[in-house]
Amino acid sequence: MIPVQELAEYLDTALLDGREVDRISNRYAAGFTLQDAYAIQDVGVQLRMQRGERVVGYKMGFTSEAKRLQMGLGSPIYGVLTDRMAVEEGSTFSLRGTIHPKIEPEIVFYVGRELRGSVSAQEAWDACTGVGAAMEILDSRFVGFKYFSLEDVVADNASSSRYILGRTILTPQEVSISDLEMVMSIDCQPAQSARSSAISGHPINSLVQLCALMHERGLSLPTGSIVLAGAATQAVALEAGMRVELAVEKLGHLGVTVGA
Ligand code: OOG
Ligand code: MG
What does the pLDDT average to over 67-92? Predict the structure, then answer.
């Protein structure tokens, strides 16, 4: 049996202390399932809620080939986003309290009604009140941010740390997101770029997949959720003083400056 509560507290302490810890799969190689991993994630989210955090949405991970190759892991997973993980567009983000943060380019969906069970891409798109450009800051709680298993990452809330939402929000009627150019720049130099089609073939498929993953666990996607579709490119390590910007065709641009 996997000690779910104990492992959630182990990861939560690592998060609070900004200190990397040994991956769970080192200790529990056999019998550590994805189901256990999501149960640990759930308890971790509850611990955050006990500290006053509010769940505002979800993030998909490993939805692009670039990310799957970078991390050596093969299938899409999800994590939970809270209000306190938000970093304001245009602000200076402090690295204090982080372990080995990275940043990556994302698309965000604003979901206007509950999505339950198996939904089609059209149903998912119709449920969106808006779509925008976003970035996610990752910060694995595991040693070296590498060699972990899919179960480890899921337990660790899919390595999520913070997210930055662009100010431009378009309605599904106003834009098609199937094939938009996405360029993430560091200090005004392009660092990573891809088309939005790199995300699940079409970013809306990430939302469909999230609903399916949640449904497998008896959950539905609540009205008002924000959903990150998963990075289109590899993530880039953050260092003090960097200025990171993402420009997404039609969806505008957003930026963040890394403080000390
Ligand atoms: C897991 C998180 C993956 C994405 O967008 O693909 C992710 C990781 O890279 O450690 O957020
Ligand atoms: Mg991501």
Answer: 96
